[in-house]
Amino acid sequence: MYSNADLDDAVDAGVLTSDTLLAFRSFIAERHKTSLVDEEQFRLLTGFNDIFVAIAGVILLVAVGSLGTLIGTSTGMVRDHAHMESPLAGILVAGTAWALGEYFTRQRRMALPSIIFLLAFSIGMFWSLTASGLMIVGQDHDDQMAVGITIGISGILTALATYLHWRRFAVPITIAALVAALVGAVIGFVGANNAIDDLLYWPMLICGIGVFAFAMRWDMSDRDRRTRRSDVAFWLHMLAAPLIAHALFHLLHAFDHDLSTGTGLLVVLLYMLFGLVALAVDRRALLVSSLAYVLWALQSLFEQVGALQFGMALTALVIGSALLLLSALWHKARALVVGWLPGDLAMRLPPASDPGPASRAAAA
């Protein structure tokens, strides 16, 4: 398997000509009866060897983390013996993940292992920095101020370390991991001065909207989604969507057992709005991230009208059918939604349909 970025690299290397690549992409689009832009392609596997290496890598990282915890415990490098939080475990995991990336990412260009090693590096750094910070301040989990500030500082430092990883390996998910660390820092600083958990959802919602805007900046720089920038935008959308959906629906108390009819209808309407946004920007992440909430809301509405025994079945039938129908009609629906938008905005979004070889050649 290969990505659009690999094909572009083949053109740069002289293996393929631009005309050949253009004809190939047009052939694939015609064969699948869809525009390649609308497929949200991103490379996850280059072959089964990716899965093999990923499994072996996870086993190795778990072993290294466990050894780090044992060594830290025996040498006293733990925050407290009750929670067994040793900064040494995080350091060893992060260092091992970086070392593995030197071969499997920089030389072999393996997709799934690269993603796992990047996540292991960032999580290991965050774990190590947080555990070290709590050891320095000598506070326990009940001190909200100390924990919040420590998490905030650790998030910033983790973001800096993740940026170095991006400069070295340029794995597309790295930017999303970096932004996630910064979001964690914001939540940590806000939580340090906030005893009401519900108020944390407001900064989460604001961060989600900010991440979405950042993702759109990457998306708009590659409207045809042929380069690595599109992959970076994909992972940023995958981060922004749960932040927005989780915060917004929790602020609406969408998971309350006594969900009112009005709130349930509002949840459904917001999901439809998410669908329009997803169609406009050609990203399905918002629909997936908010799926659990709309399923719960629809089930509650069905139960309130007397369909208690069939609530879940009816909900799954309605949502499943609607999403499959939307997938089948995605291109036509996109063309309709984008057609409603102002011209300047529509021109900055991915094209609603494949313009075809002639117009692409003219544009080139």
Question: If you had to describe this structure to a student in words, what would you say it looks like?
Answer:
There is one protein chain. Helix 12 (291-304) crosses helix 13 (311-328). By secondary structure, the chain is mainly alpha-helical. The protein is globular. The protein contains 16 helices and no strands. It has a domain at 245-364. The longest helix has 28 residues, at 48-75.
Identify the notable features of this structure and list them briefly:
364 residues; mainly alpha; 0% strand; globular; disordered C terminus
List the helices and strands and how they pair.
Layout: H1 4-12, H2 18-31, H3 48-75, H4 87-104, H5 111-137, H6 144-169, H7 173-192, H8 201-220, H9 228-251, H10 261-281, H11 285-289, H12 291-304, H13 311-328, H14 330-340, H15 343-346, H16 356-363
Tell me about the biggest sheet?
none
Number of helices: 16
The proportion of residues in beta strands is under 5%
Structural class: mainly alpha
Provide a short characterization of the protein structure.
The protein is mainly α and 364 residues long. The chain has helices spanning 4-12, 18-31, 48-75, 87-104, 111-137, 144-169, 173-192, 201-220, 228-251, 261-281, 285-289, 291-304, 311-328, 330-340, 343-346, 356-363. Mean pLDDT is 84; it is low at 354-364.
